[in-house]
Each structure stands twice: as C-alpha cells, then as structure tokens.
Amino acid sequence: MVIYPTWNIPWRTTVSALILETKDLAKMYGDFAAVRGITFSIEEGEIFGLLGPNGAGKSTTIAMLTGLFPPSKGSIRIFGIDPLVEPDRVKKLIGVVPQDLALYPTLSGRENLRFFGEMYGLSGKDLRGRVEMSLEYVAMTERANDPVKTYSGGMKRRINLAAALIHNPRLLFLDEPTVGVDPQSRNHIFEVVELLNKASGVSIIYTTHYMEEAERLCRRIAIIDRGQIIALDTPHNLINMLGGGIIHLGLSQENEALRKEVMEIQEVKNAMYLATENIDDKLKSKTILKIEAHHANEALIAILNLLNQRGEPVLSIETLEPNLESLFLHLTGKALRQ
Amino acid sequence: MKLFYLLRNDLLLLLRDRPHLVELFLLPLAFILPVSFALGKGDGYGVSAGNRKERLPVVNFDQGERADELIRLLNESFFIERNFSAETVKSFNFTDLTACNQVSVACDHAVVQRMLERSWRNTALVIPEGFSASLDTGKETTVTVLYNPVADVAAREMVSGVIRGAGIRLTLDQIVEKGWGQMSDLSSFTPPDVKKSIDEQTSQPADPGQKPAFSLKSIRPQNYTRLDTPDTYQQTVPGYTVMFVFFIISYLSAVIRDEKRNGTYRRLLTMPVKRAWLLGGKLLGALVIGLAQVAIMFTIGALVFGLDLGSDWLGLAMLTMSLVAAAASMGLATSTIKGADGVLTAPLIISALLGGCMFPVDIMPAFLRNISYIVPHRWALLGYQNLLVRGQGLWDVLPQIGVLLGFAAVFFAIAVWRFDYEEA
Known about the structure:
Mean pLDDT of chain B: 81
Number of helices of chain B: 17
Helix content of chain B: 55-70%
Strand content of chain A: 25-35%
Low-confidence stretches of chain A: 1-15
Radius of gyration of chain B: 29 Å
Largest sheet of chain B: 5 strands, mixed
Number of strands of chain A: 13
Distance between the termini of chain B: 26 Å
Structural class of chain A: alpha/beta
Largest interface: A-B, 30 and 23 residues
Number of strands of chain B: 5
Oligomer: heterodimer
C-alpha cells in the first residue's frame, strides 16, 4: 500500500494511507466566509460524511476539493498531490457526482457517458467497456439509448452517478446524491455506494443533510455548520456525545437555584438554560432548561418529581432521542433541515 | 483530441436542437430562395444606376434664364441635385464644408466635388457664370462635366450625350423663339396646319448633328475606386448568409447558458480538461457551423441561381473564416452577459438591416450608409461583393478581412476577460 505524505491531523487514530487532507481550508466571497478553516483527512477505503444543513458550506468545500475553484486560504492534498499545482493528475483519480444533475438532456445516457469518458482520455474498446460497465453498475443498460430528458428523476440521478464512475476513480465525491430521488432509486444509489466501497475499494466523500444516510453509509462524519466543522468522529461516538439523551423543559422563568438542584440528580449529566438566540421562535415565550441525561427516562421522572415538590409549573417537555439530528440540535441549537 | 471530442459533442447537440438548427440553416434559405425567386435575375433591388433615374448634381454659377432653361431640359432625364441645404449637407456628413453655412453656389460646388471624390455620383454639371449672357449674345461658352473616371464609361457618355442634346434643344428653342418673335405679328394669319407643323418641329428631339449652343468640357478628378453594384443574387445570397452567420451569436450564448444550467459545464471543470479548451471547443464548434452555413448557402446560390462565386477561392475562404471568427467571438462575449441570449434577435436583425444584408446599402440615405460601417455585417458583405461582383481577390479584400479579425480579437478578449468559470 502506498503511503502518501500527510500532515499531523489531531484526530487521526491509525497510521494508514491518507488519500485526502485539507488544512485550514477557507473560501471567501467578499466579506462573506462560505468556508472558514476546515481541516480534515480521509483514509483510503473510507466513506466519509459531511453532514450539515443547506448553506453550511458542504458544497463549497466539495467544489474546492474537486477543482471547481481554488480556496481563498488553506491547502489540499489528494493522493499527496496538490490539485492547484497538478490539477489534471488529481482529476484523473477522482470522480464527482454533483449536487445538481449534470447531463446533456438531449443526448442518451450512453452518449453522455461516452463523451464524459472521452474527456477522461478513454477511447476505443476501453471506453466502450467502461461505458457498459458503468451502465450495469447503475442498472441503466436497458434505457441507455433513450434521451436523458425522457428519464425519471431517479434514473437521471443514476446516470449522473455512472458518469462519475466512467474512468474508475479511486476517490468519489458524492454531493447530496439523493436529493429529489424516489425511495427505490435512493436505495439503489446506497447499494452502489456500498458496493463501490466494499468491492472496489473506492474511497468516498458523501455530503448530505439526511442523518439516516450519513449514519447508514459513513464510517466517520464531520458535522459542518456555518462553514466550520463542529464535530468529527464515527457516528457512534458522535451520538454518544449526547449521552442518554437530551431533555428540554419549558419553564416560566430562569431559576438558578432550581438548575443547581437538577444538576444534583444522579441521572443528570449537565443542565443549562438555553440562550434566547438558540431557541426556536415558537418557544421564545418561555425559558428552556436543557438537560443532558445519562438515562433520559429515569432523569425525566426524577426532575418532574423535583418540580412537583417545588410547585414549579412545567410549560413543555421535549425529549430528544440520541441521534445525529439531536446532536446537531444540541451543538447548534437548530434543526439539521432548517 | 479532446478538442475534437468537444467539437463533436457540440455538433451532436446541435443536431438534436431543432430550433437552432432551423435558425442557423433553414431560416437563411427561407429568405434567400423566395426573395431571389421573387426579385428575379438582374437588378431586382433597383440598385444599379442604369435602373434608376440618374442623379445629376448641378452647380449653377450663372443663375440666368438660359441656365435655368438648361436645367429644366436636363430635369426630364435626370434627378437634378442642387441648392444643397445645410440639413442635406449634414445628412451627407459634410459638416466640415465651411462654404455650406448657407445655401450657395459655392456650397453646391464643394458638395459636388466631395460626392465625386467619394464615388457617390458618376457625373456632375458645372454651368459657368455668364452662361445665359453668352448664349443671348451668341458668344461661345462652355459647361463642364465633372466625371468619375472609374464609373461606367457608357453611363458617363450617356450623361454627356443628354447634356449635348439639351444644348441643341436650347439652341433650337432660341432660334425658334427669335423667329417666332419675328413671326408673331403674322401668327394670326398663319394657317392651323402650318402652325401645327412648326410646333411639332420645335418639340422634336435634338438632331445629334446639330451644333449645341455651348461646348462641353469634361474634367477627370483623381483617386476614384470602382464600385460595381450587385445584382439580385449577388445581394441576396451573401446578404442573408452573412445575416444568419451572425445568428451564431444567439446560438453560442444559448449553448453556453444551457451548459451552465444543465450542470455539464461544472462537471467538465472537474475533469482533466483545460479551461481554455472548453472555450476553444465552443469557438471551434461555432467556426465549423459558420463555415457550413456559408458553404451550404453559397452552393445553393450557385446551383439554383447560377451565382458566380468568383475565382479567388482563397479570398473567399479567408473572408469566410474571418466572418465566422467575428461572429463566434461576439457570441462568446455575449454569453458573459446574463440574460442576453433572450433578447438578441432584435439587435441581430437591426444590425443585419444596417449592414446591408436585407437590402443594399446603396439605396439607404447617406447618413445610414456612413454608420453602417459600425456593424461587422457591412464589412463582410462588402468583402463578399468585392469578390463576387467586382472580380477582386484576396489582396483587395484584406481591409475587410482585417476589420472582421479586429472584431474577432476585441470580442474574444472581452469574452476571456469576462467569462465566469465559477458561475454555474
């Protein structure tokens, strides 16, 4: 196995081939920072997720990594190569499935794949073989000669994916590949991604704002918000950050003595009042006490007993299951799909 | 090789793009065929001097009765131009002629000389001061015909002949007038048939053998260029071909917009393809399409209407290449303006109209003729007509090729400068 030059990344736990590394990556549009100082790395054979809401900076990050435009700051290494210095070398090793469909609607699926294959330098028998193989991969051989404009949304997505596989890339970028896709095609895309990774060893960067996709596919996930990575780990470790769950209690006013008493309950890990800017509009009329629990159910019973004893009225109760969605809410105070 | 694949892909996309296919290849034919058939062979547009009443500018230094009589006689055969007003002079763009601050003979003289210098007129007549007095007293006098030496000699001779004829008519009138004055006392006794015979005699065309009342002096000015006018087919085929070659501007803008909207342009940027090739591929595609347009239209012109394509194929090829390069570069530059492709049809038609593609610039007012040079259509059409009509060659159409390549260079530079690779 080739070991590519790497930087010292703090969360690296094993020494293996890092095929992609970014350091302090940033993109500015005038005064607006779309991406601000992102640093992460990907190991060979890994499916790495970038999870975040729309506008978090995921697609801008992917665009910089795939050579669509240069970063304003920071550096990138892909297979040890600086894509700003040798863009063509890097582009031959990567495949990109853009967020929006990127196909010629009047050409057939096969014609699209043939043209994109030619752009990767393929020709002759090699090109024909790769076109057919890519079509088989996404189960589109039967409709391959029909114009793309006659395909369903899911079929277009599958050809969109096939176009990125045509040159047998070693690193595949999938930017929200399942947006607007029917469940059948979505499952098919998941299967292709898993097959590519397991059978062909293709490393994958997968951006999404669907936590289920990230949880199902990715070995590690970086949660990204407002152009920054706010958490990065395996899905299991990320969810564990929430402990046994989160409880949001709606109270009439802040009461510091009450908060301290809640903290003393054995099942409670932490308790704090949410800052106003982190509260949904519908909850702004009340004060929210956010409780991180070791075990949510036991903690909730104990807290309600305490509030009853003190005669403190409870305006609302919300318990958050420990998952990536609630982790994002926990970390940012807003929902993943806002 | 990738450039070839980009080109092939663009052509494949065009073959599936019926609206653009119709606009670029069928519309020009839809104009060329009916217009050519309708106007027929020859001077269908009436642009040739021989097909219209010849314009004859007159400078009248005399202002006497005989001069007026001569002008009246000439007016039967010519469209007489004189007493140029400030407005007319302005419309000719001769504002530098200080003699034309007011209507005057000096102004007429200056304007006429300028018109001849610019080859706008073939001939002009100058009537000297004292012309009427000399005729009345029987003294010898001379009028001057200024002529364009490179204009059609037969036409010039025709003008001279008519002026001589008018001179003879003037002489006869003078004789009859004198005789009639002497006979006026007896007129009441003249029998009607004799009187009718006299009237018929005086209204007869002048006898060429008769000596005119004045002699004719022709002056040949310097520095003239020959500008033969095109016939129907020489105007229609290249005219509409040039017009629709410039529709490549609209096609390219739309194609680049579609590439960006489809996301294919963004995808291509993630592939090992140089950015310059993406622009170059589009330019190459437009070049091939434009060359195909010219080849098809001119071939149909030659086969259906017998259009003579001249003998200088190199000149024709070079001019066509520069025309298509100009159109393609303008298309690339226009594609950098958001929303431009939806509003291009009107400017393209107006430019074609101004550039003489739909009817000859020779029948436009002078001020329009002057501003027609701001559109590349004018230069392309002038180049084609120099090759097809005036028998010129590559060397002669280098100015037109140069101007078109200038358009191409300027607009390509604008396209490269303004093209937003990150926009999608």
